[in-house]
Fold this sequence. Notes:
Structural class: alpha+beta
Shape: globular
Mean pLDDT: 94
Strand order of the largest sheet: 1-2-3-5-4
Order of helices and strands: HEEEHEEHHHEEEEHHHH
Low-confidence stretches: 1-5
CATH topology of the largest domain: Aminoglycoside 3'-phosphotransferase, Chain: A, domain 2
Number of strands: 9
CATH architecture of the largest domain: Alpha-Beta Complex
Number of domains: 2
Oligomer: single chain
Amino acid sequence: MTEELEPKRTSRDLSEVQTQLSKWLQEKVGDRHASITNIRRPTGSGMSSETLLFTAYFQNGGVRDEHSLVARLAPAAEDIPVFPSYDLDLQVQTMKIVEQETTIPVPRVLWLETNAKIIGVPFFVMEQVEGRVPPDIPPYVFGGWLLEASPENLQTVEKHSVHVISELTKIDLASLNTQFLETEFLGETHLRRHFSAQQNYYQWVIGNNREHPVIESAFTWLEENWPEESATVLSWGDSRIGNIMFSNESFTPVAVFDWEMAGLAPVEVDLGWIVFLHSFFQDIAETYEFPGLPDFMKAETVKEIYKEQTGHTSKDLQWFMVYAGLRHAIIMSRINDRSVRFGQAIWTEDVDDAIPHSNLLWSMIR
């Protein structure tokens, strides 16, 4: 899919951003000749924050060097942000904890800029890592390097992807200041607070404009089937293979990114998300009569890998898969609002049509 056919994320002009970033970089590194070239948006990526790739030139120790960098931008308010707020400091702090406390590879953050006047929104800049990512647009189940991989290499991807989640559970939260990860919403446990945050998010998305029957029903099902809760861990939040960059030569991770949904929750929040998000893409593939990857990232496989890596058995994973389906449905509703804003979609009489996996979610709660 070309960039023109991708769902539009922003009205921001790239040439203007390049000029603004160049001036900012000159002050940041103390080099009035510092410059930025080849600024571009990656194709096939997610729908929330805006990511920009670029090459920067600036003097370092008396030598002018070339640097391949990435800027992660909060979305502009007029472009219908997916989430109510974007805490870039939370993302940066989380990445630093992950880098220091685990073996998970994360890109090195160079600068966090909280002054929105520079380019209109806060942003942070990190080093660019070379590798390949399973694309979202079009989904990797339709073609590409992962679909063409051998069964052995697919198993490698599964094991290494789950290993990211397993590594997060080994972080000793008691030894760290994790107050920045606490949600403002009430609840007796971190899962209850996480759930309350989703209820609030849903109300923010729909406002007084609509109600989604499938989402309302999923909330009810989850309440009526509340799971046994495991210990609280550092939760990645958006734990899916599309947020992992793999080596060009192998099927092992070289970078794990997109920590904007990070928080505190049972590990099953991440395990359920990684299983469901593949189910979501696989369901799309089968709808269009593509084979996809039907035996990849299945719930039982993920549970077994997690047990092998940690010695623990995940609890009530089916509940957390439904929870993932609910969370993703709210996101898709908001993304449809954005697509309508850019003239790429309309609201139909059946509002659940905006949720591509509504039938899948219905099947999970009936």
